[in-house]
């Protein structure tokens, strides 16, 4: 497929003169059709509206040619931004893409997980450690909100692989509304001397007339914006770029003290000195919605906006009379279901990410007519996972600390504030959301006075895919992200006793547990049927409510076997922790070391998901110790759709039964005759049913 | 802006020869870049791979030129399909569009409301009555699933306005993945004689070798598919199209008895006879995913698919090894938030639909810093409304019939089955959903044995927009769509007595109400706090539960004034309907004539939305009559996020107070001193608070 480029290149050289003539007639109406839209906002003050910039016929690279994109990304918020940018890129692209991400440890942690689970064909992602680059730019005083990270764009030519001849560099706050291949093709218009492609800055900043005593860095006319850069890397190396920008920056810093706009000031100062280096790009490739933007001069003329740049610190809230229009473009990708971008590029080789082909085969082998097809499909589904979706402060290392682990979907969001009031310690929560809901969730947390201050709560978004709720996959995501030695495995509709967090830590210390000891501390579970009730402040108050019938032991009427082993009557009187034995269908809420067994992901939808986990603990010889002062209370809520389906569908119940049996077969394989008691218990339960 | 086309046209004529040469060199690699992708699946059996079809340089029409699209659409399901198609069209389009919709009464009713409330700039929609066209094609025997409607494409040249020279005709089951202007530009490649542009049929159907004794209509080679047609209308008229197709059809029907593929058979038969009429289009403009499709030969080569055609009766469930890829393209628009398409076309005149500019101004005048800004904005929001989202059988006219009216969002979906069991009569339900949720809802109904058979339940989707729940706007949508003389204004979390539907109709008859009499029949409201309880089969059973404390009168503890006027102690003993008086904060569930006052849409979010409606009824001198055997029971559910916000936010409560006061000012304006009692009541309530 690839070698076709060569005759094209020859043809192109021969035909360039011919095209210039053709172009004039055919594309005279051109400002209306985008590609050739003027490179400067005013008349052509420094000769940039040359033929190469306004001639519209682009020579696109061959179908399967890889395009390279570099982005600097640091922290939680930029990690969310870059995903929206990537969605817009992937939506329009028709070429394989290689993302070169220069990240801090936070962004890398988030984005590695995200891209691995996203499994987009024909997308390669490489990471570069921003920490290592800091010394290269930290000597430059900078006042811009991007901090040191903005400046890192200056050193890309020295850190990207030498094999890379060209790269497009993007800020995280841009959105594509066209195929990046058209931007890539603009490299073809560079003259021999040009090494960097940029769009003119769409504000008067560099003209120095914005306010009195405003003294910007030197720039050619309005200067250029560095939100979108075409870098011709090997030429930059040959030109001595590194030396060049450092000399310029050091000289200007003698009088200017600091950069105001980070790398952009330095790029502009270099270009002012060496104007032949820059290839001006059409304005539509970087429509800048900064405060006091002049972008209107660009987009009112153009038919087709290619890249929107939210380069105001206000981002989407920037004031602009067409803000709604641009926001809609951005919101398109903010809420876009990322799994729809798992699209192959027909006819391109080697495009599948690790595991994708095996997964496709496994899915293809499922029998759509089989009654439990939906279960099988759901179990195989790889969900996109965005860990630490919001800014998070990891807990300091403390030997007895406990993280509350739970999972939820949008319909339990209203539990979060109450939960935060009841549990002052770290939490790790997995949320099962659509891309659109993730944005609503973000808004919900940001506007909640209770949630917005709790940086010790880590939210991990697992994106929805498929008809059944992957409850145990969610629990495993939250569990894997817990950072303390112990975890409290809870459910979102439970509120722990106000004292539980302190009490658990004290108990762990007093019992001299250490994380190698296989102990599961049981937190007895109760429930109220009332939406409004006053939460007991002590075990004594709880017992009073229990005796008054305002509280019950959890599922006493519907599913007593789930908690009977906890032995509530003993608990009433207990003054010290006591050991209890596993019995069939036991599913207490427990505190265990973080390295405890994972939940079995085969259980999707409703039913038996915790029971299987407790069996696993018992099989691994965890000791169950009930804590005498611990309790947690279940609040009422509308039954989930999954429960409704379970209750109404015999197929659903049969499939759950099949899953249980498979689980037991696996248990026997792993634990041998020791697992016999679980199977016996299951069979007894079955014969009772 | 417009007159620029003229020099272009001249230039184009002069340069055509030049281009043919240029094109050869520049676009030799062309199969990879879509525009010139081969017009036939095999070698070129009938000369269609001519220069006009493979030369890739398109002359696009001027920026603001209107493009015309005609679509035949009938019934509920096609009305949903056409919206997805329209979203894909609007997403990529950069020109004004005029949709010419040939509809039956059902589709027209749905789509008129939808497009009016969608308020998309630069989109014009005209309707044509399919009923009037039926006689023109009903003489043609047809076996295709599209019925008579497919055949109507044949008569478009005679019914579209004579001013229309060209039109693109689309089936409802196509999805665009590119800008339709590129398709429109292909008119520019028609020779003088060509009148219809079509893509080759991507199956062997017309070769007649699919099965033994398969005898298709005559066609040129593989024939053409009519899912996407470029019609050059004035030329067709001049060619005597009407005469031509009728003669051909009548002749073929002598031996073939009926069309198998509707209009497509006839188009092909005409083209077989007059091959010079057809301009073959590149295959990417109609990638056909029929059963046994050969489309792979097209899309594996092409870089860029322009239009996907789901022309199997199985639609999205068609088996194809790349089905997932195509489904993702389609799902993109199925779940796409349609409000994001309310995007203006910069620089084009007269693009705003009726009311849009006033609305924008009103929104622009709101003060974003004002504490009740969100309320004001929500009140002004125009929601897209899709009435009768699912197939619906309107109730037969019956003078005492009652429709249950309610509204819900996704988190109350599990109420629907129970509601259907309790209310065997007609219902009109408004659902507040995102586009994505609307698809989940569709799936939910289709897979529910209870819901899928209830054709007397009309579901009206109101698409989400804004942070506050527009409860009264939703009620008004459901109310406006009720088709019986009476309506029972209920809430989704209430289950009516099993006998209520019959009892209400009998009561209306016995009380000799007629829809001019201003009577509101009160259905007393109760509540249970238990998720599982056995619903009383009679008033006697209900009273027993009440005495046992398993049931309560509705909100007895939290908001007794809401229902105290109903006078539950009198109801216990009552044998006949009795009249009650309005009192402050009264909000009973009532049965009223369909033409009752609408709900006040200013109440958004939680609070006072029904109270205001009952005041309105009282102010209009409705008589409140409590029915002695009627009852309805509220089931518990998780509090909505809006209620949580109300409880926790003083701003929210203050804004609600401001709304109440404005409501009372309006009341005084409309009812004068008669409205004084409501204001007094409000002030008393306030002083108590």
Molecular structure report:
Two copies of one chain form a homodimer. With 689 residues, the first copy, chain A, is of the alpha/beta class. Chain A has two domains: 67-339, Spore Coat Polysaccharide Biosynthesis Protein SpsA, Chain A, CATH 3.90.550.10; 385-681, Spore Coat Polysaccharide Biosynthesis Protein SpsA, Chain A, CATH 3.90.550. Helices cover 38% and strands 16% of the residues of chain A. The first copy, chain A, has 26 helices and 23 strands. In chain A, the strands form four sheets. The first copy, chain A, has a nine-stranded mixed sheet with strand order 11-14-13-12-15-21-17-22-20. In chain A, strands 3-2-1-4-7-6-8 form a seven-stranded mixed sheet, sandwiched between helices. In chain A, strands 16-23-18-19 form a four-stranded mixed sheet. In chain A, helix 3 (75-92) runs parallel beside helix 4 (105-118), helix 10 (241-256) crosses helix 11 (263-273) and helix 24 (641-648) crosses helix 25 (650-671). Mean pLDDT of chain A is 88; it is low at 1-37 and 43-55. Chains A and B meet through helix 1, helix 13, helix 17 and helix 24 of A and helix 1, helix 13, helix 17 and helix 24 of B. Chains A, B: It is found in: Golgi apparatus membrane. Chains A, B: It comes from Mus caroli.
